[in-house]
Model the fold of this input.
Amino acid sequence: MELADQFSDKRILLTGVTGFIGRHLARRLAAHGAEVWGVSRRPVLEGGEEGVCYRNGNLSIIGTVEALFQEIRPDIVFHLASHVAGARGLELVQPTLQSNLVAAVNILCGAAGMESPPRVILAGSMEESDPKIDGVPSSPYAAAKSAATAYARMFADLYRLPVTIARIFMVYGPDQPDERKLVPYVIGSLLAGRAPSLTSGARAVDWIYIDDVVAGLLAMALAGGEGALRGSQVDLGTGRMTTVREVVERLSGIAEAVVEPTFGSLADRAREQECAADTARTEALIGWSSRVSLGDGLRRTFEWYRAGGA
Done:
């Protein structure tokens, strides 16, 4: 059955609709004929994406979340809203607690409180602590994401909520709104003829192209019956590790840059995790695997920015 047939009668609640993954997912869902309701902390200007109904709200307020569920009555929830900041500063504890944990718990409560609870796809992160190692989160962001996953598993087991956690690895691609992130920052610097200032670049990461992530999220929403993936964590990555330095060097080659990136001008973050997605398990669970190679994805991304976002 075509995706359009499977989503055309579905009402979708999509949080974080103005974020990187959210805006790409909203476009794909709308193209497949879904009724998409997008929620953002910030007002959406200039009309937003075609085919998306927008709501503005603070998801860390339970009353706001309950009102959204009563109005929308979704069949599927994609909870992508997050305060994305991997730094280690004390000032990030409260923002990540509210935006990444409290908001997630409120979404789970809102879904579980429905007469017919929707299927929930909760965005997790590769930054979450690995209980097989020491289980200690490496940042406020990682701590909040790890705790949200624990709550999701509790809701799945105790309240039988059909919730699945998407453990998303390092996403890159066109139209990434936060230009401080590595790939858009490096591309922007190279296009402007500036040498990007970077860490040592030694960290190895599992990089995944945005279109593959969107396809993975859609596959998670459709896999098996309602309770097929209840409480499961599904890796969305390629299973292949590439250092930051190599990614930057590849972009420099694509750009035919005349400036040299300045590796080591910024300090490496402490306790950064290095892990690859378990792609065999993911394919067995949802029948999905990544399709876009790193080289092809970086080239597509660079060409999009060079064309001015067209």
User: Anything to note?
Assistant: The mean pLDDT is 91. The CA atoms of residues 173 and 301 lie 5 Å apart.
